[in-house]
Each structure stands twice: as structure tokens, then as C-alpha cells.
Inverse folding.
């Protein structure tokens, strides 16, 4: 069997979200050779998932995440950054400074880990499997599917509440189902949710079995505090039950906390020399664009210092 081709770079950036791209832009300014690898088709990470206006960035307002993603893509092009897209990294040897996809090995003197979050999935069960065509995790490109339909949204964080508010514009019915009566979403979103008469909120409730002949028609909603079950007529289910850090491929190689977030120093160094991490996957961090951007800059500075100390 032939050995896979090896791609060399001074610095390897894993993930082309806000953290990875800002790190690469800063390195580019410093004329440090850098290669970014991402499994998505284009840069932006979670940005296209943001359906509403982005109002918490001091550089300006963006009508939604797609607009910001487009601006980020333009920057990548203008700076002529070296981005390898559609490339899923499946394993790493961080000590050796290498990461591998199915067909290629990437080798660098320093690595910035910026692989971000992914959505948590529903547990595997027959009922969920049978109606998988009516269960959605991402809705950005399939908005039409919910128009004039009865939609249930599962979760109680920002994403779930944003989704409920968005669906309430065009769906015939919207139900938000949350396991507890505590909502992790931003206070302004919770206020909007409570005042929206088109959304039925079911707290202390969990998604149960699903029924239907051809497609989904009905779900059971179980109380998490008592023995009661409610039947809801529903056509589509949108799942927003939280996020997990994409750090499995780094496990056992660098220090992480019990939730799989990578432990970092304030300058984005990890427990392993030459390996840096930032953005959503950093332990004790904040899942915010500005935080990821700042981490990207911080990591680039630390990487420069590290490379100088090694030469
Ligand atoms: C619905 C929603 C609304 C939000 N609203 C806001 C908001 O209003 N304001 C705000 O500040 N923040 C908001 N956020 C949070 C913000 O999007 C994130 O904090 C930010 O995108 C984190 O950037 P990141 O670079 O750390 O990770 P990500 O954006 O997650 O980027 C990580 C990248 O790594 C890639 N990757 C992962 N694993 C691999 C692998 N094995 N191989 C190759 N590539 C890999 C992924 O494809 C992805 O492109 C929102 C998020 C969501 C989901």
C-alpha cells in the first residue's frame, strides 16, 4: 500500500470558523506560512446556523450569520489564505505535529486547534430512526419544509429559542419542549418567547415516541416531573438540545476537562508544547464570535513566540 501524501506547513490550523480564520489572518500578516483545514465546503464554522441579526460585535451589525460568513469568505480570498476545504481530519499525533484525513497527512511545527462545536443528537431509538426524515438538526437550507406545518422544537438554549421565534413567523403551530423549567437562552430571547402567543411552551417535558402513517403525525410528550403524557399533533421536529466540543480526535494527547473542552492558558497554549487551542473548544471559554476571534489573535501571537523560541 502506498503511503498517503504529506502536506507540510509551518503552522496548521484545524477548523475554519472565526477562531481558525482570525488566527490565520494574523499569521498571514506576520508572513508565517499557515495551512487551514476544514471539513466544510467553505469557511465560517457555525456562522451559517445563526438565523437572526448579529448585534454583539463591535465591528458592525450583520443581518444574519450567512452575511458574516460571506464577509469572512471574502477576507480569506483577499488575503489569499491557504484553506483546504471538504477535508475531515480523522486522527492526530499532536506530539509529532501531524493530523491526518482519509487521504493525506498534514505536518507542521505548530498547530492551532479550533474545531468548535457540533450539535448534540437525539439518543438512538427505533421511533426516532423511523421518522428521521421529519427530524432536523440544521434548518438553514430547508426553511420551506416548515411553512404551514406543525413544528416542535426541542431544547431551551439560544438555538432552540431562536428557532422557535423564527418558525413562529411561518409555521402553522409551534411548540417548544424543554426538559426543565430553566432556560439557558439569553434573557431578551426568553422575553420574546414568553410574549409570543404563537408559541406554546412546554417546560419540564421531554420528547417521547413518534407516530404516523407515511410521515410524522403525532408525538408523545412526557412530563419530567410527574407521570403525565401529552399527545401533540406534529409534522416536523427540530432538535436543538445543546452542543458538544469537537475534540474526540485529541483525547488522551492534551489536557481536557470532564466535558471534553481543552484546558488552555490565557495565551491559548495547551498542555503540549507547540499545540494551541481556542474558540468554543477552550475550557472556561465563551461560545461567542468575539471570543473566538480574540483567541485566534492570541494564539497567533503565542505561535509566533513559540516558533521563534524553537529556531
Ligand atoms: C444558532 C446559533 C446562534 C449563535 N448566535 C451568536 C451570536 O448572536 N453572537 C455570537 O457572538 N455568537 C453566536 N453563536 C456562537 C458562535 O457561532 C460560535 O461561538 C463561533 O462560531 C465559534 O467559533 P469557533 O471558530 O470556535 O468554532 P466553529 O464556528 O464551530 O468552527 C469550527 C470549524 O471546525 C471544523 N471542524 C471540526 N472538526 C473538524 C475535523 N475533524 N476536521 C476538519 N474540520 C473540522 C468545523 O467544520 C467548523 O468549520 C451562535 C451559534 C449558534 C449555533
Amino acid at each position: 500500500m502506498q503511503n498517503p501524501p504529506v502536506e507540510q506547513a509551518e503552522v496548521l490550523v484545524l477548523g475554519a470558523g472565526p477562531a481558525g480564520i482570525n488566527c490565520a489572518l494574523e499569521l498571514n500578516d506576520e508572513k508565517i506560512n499557515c495551512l487551514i483545514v476544514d471539513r466544510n465546503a467553505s469557511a465560517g464554522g457555525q456562522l451559517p446556523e445563526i438565523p437572526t441579526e448579529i448585534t454583539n460585535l463591535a465591528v458592525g451589525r450583520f443581518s444574519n450569520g450567512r452575511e458574516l460568513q460571506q464577509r469572512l469568505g471574502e477576507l480569506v480570498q483577499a488575503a489569499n489564505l491557504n484553506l483546504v476545504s471538504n477535508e475531515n481530519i480523522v486522527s492526530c499525533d499532536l506530539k509529532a505535529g501531524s493530523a491526518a484525513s482519509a487521504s493525506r497527512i498534514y505536518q507542521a511545527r505548530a498547530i492551532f486547534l479550533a474545531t468548535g462545536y457540533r450539535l448534540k443528537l437525539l439518543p438512538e431509538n427505533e421511533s426516532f430512526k423511523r421518522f428521521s426524515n421529519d427530524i432536523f438538526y440544521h434548518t438553514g437550507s430547508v426553511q420551506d419544509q416548515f411553512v404551514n406545518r406543525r413544528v416542535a422544537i426541542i431544547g431551551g438554549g439560544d438555538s432552540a429559542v431562536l428557532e422557535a421565534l423564527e418558525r413562529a413567523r411561518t409555521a402553522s403551530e409551534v411548540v417548544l419542549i424543554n426538559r426543565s423549567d430553566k432556560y439557558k437562552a439569553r434573557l431578551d430571547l426568553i422575553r420574546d418567547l414568553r410574549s409570543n402567543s404563537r408559541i406554546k411552551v412546554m417546560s419540564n417535558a421531554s420528547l417521547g415516541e413518534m407516530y404516523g402513517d407515511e410521515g410524522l403525525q403525532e408525538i408523545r410528550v412526557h412530563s419530567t416531573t410527574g407521570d403525565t403524557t401529552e399527545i401533540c399533533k406534529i409534522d416536523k421536529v427540530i432538535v436543538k438540545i445543546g452542543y458538544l466540543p469537537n475534540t474526540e480526535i485529541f483525547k488522551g494527547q492534551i489536557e481536557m476537562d470532564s466535558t471534553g473542552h481543552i484546558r488552555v492558558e490565557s495565551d491559548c497554549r495547551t498542555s503540549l508544547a507547540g499545540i494551541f487551542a481556542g474558540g468554543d473548544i477552550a475550557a472556561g471559554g465563551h461560545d461567542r464570535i468575539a471570543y473566538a476571534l480574540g483567541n485566534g489573535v492570541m494564539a497567533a501571537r503565542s505561535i509566533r513566540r513559540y516558533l521563534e523560541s524553537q529556531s
